[in-house]
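re: ur question from yesterday

yeah so i grabbed the chain u mentioned. its 343 aa long if i counted rite. heres the sequnce exactly as i have it in my notes:
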Amino acid sequence: MSLQFFLTTFAAIVWNGQPVLFSVPAIDLPFSISWLALGGGFIGAQWLHSRWTKKGVSPIPFGYWGIFVVLFVSIQLLDLIIQGPGFSTIGPIEPRWYGLMFALAFVSGYWLASKEMVHIGLTPEQMDRLLMVVLFSTVIGARLGHIVFYDLEFYLANPELIPQIWRGGLASHGAAIAIPLALWFYARSLKKITFLQLADRIVIGVSIAGMFIRTGNFFNSEILGRPTDLPWAIVFAQRDMLPRHPTMLYEALWCVVVLVILLVILHRYAKLPPKGLLLGTFLSVLFTGRFMLEFTKVRQAAFATEWPLSMGQLLSIPAILIGLWLIVQALQRKPVQKASKAS
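ran it thru and got these structure tokens back, copy pasting raw so excuse formatting
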């Protein structure tokens, strides 16, 4: 079937969306702002505000932001002497759809996971720290995963590009490795909550987060599918004029399916399923779908073009097996009766 016949017969959707939300031209500042003042202000204010809050005293009015202003001005004046790094221009500012979707992913994931963390006894303060753990492990893990699994040779030749995540290049398999590791270390600091209990609740938030992130990939016209003549194919005009599988939307919808399955299990066990059951279900179901959907996707790893399976499929197999093992182990345990007995 020719491309012209497809376009005229099925009136394929043509996606020509821009990844940028809006643009603000560069703004010149009246003076240079020190990076040391910004960083020191935020970090110092967080530390001092936490200590003073525990002691019930606050010598500086307006709480956190009052402390930040005092530290910022102090370090800014000191920077005039030491001439540290700074910036005198803001912009141009070009927020992107992917950035908005990434933010929505963490906001929605945090909201959903926090509602479930109550059932295992996690306090709001512990939940806030957990959010930072998940945030940093997601970004760092996804970035390193893309570098190691998909384009190691390129980044070894161009190491200065490694931190430039705004240029693209995040792999969900890298995040799938980094998040459990970070959760394991964080769980060691908790007395009555185990790694499996944390992971069981985190995956609920990760499911909805995955939906938003894959939607962001759609706005960026990335993670393209193979050419197809199916009636729901989409032409990504920013890339080429071929009707393709909207694989990123397939994966977004699959994340919704995973979320629904997890919520059904939670309802089945009255919010307290056997430890590891939700995590195992998440891994086995999500990555089984990922394995199957890889057949509709253009391969990303250049060195894997001649392999029968793609890099994404090879990385999904261990996750599926671990998930099935966790499910078997969980079903041999008794459901938790009360959150206060979690250990």
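noticed a couple things. Residues 97-227+245-341 form one domain. also The longest strand covers residues 27-34.
anyway ttyl
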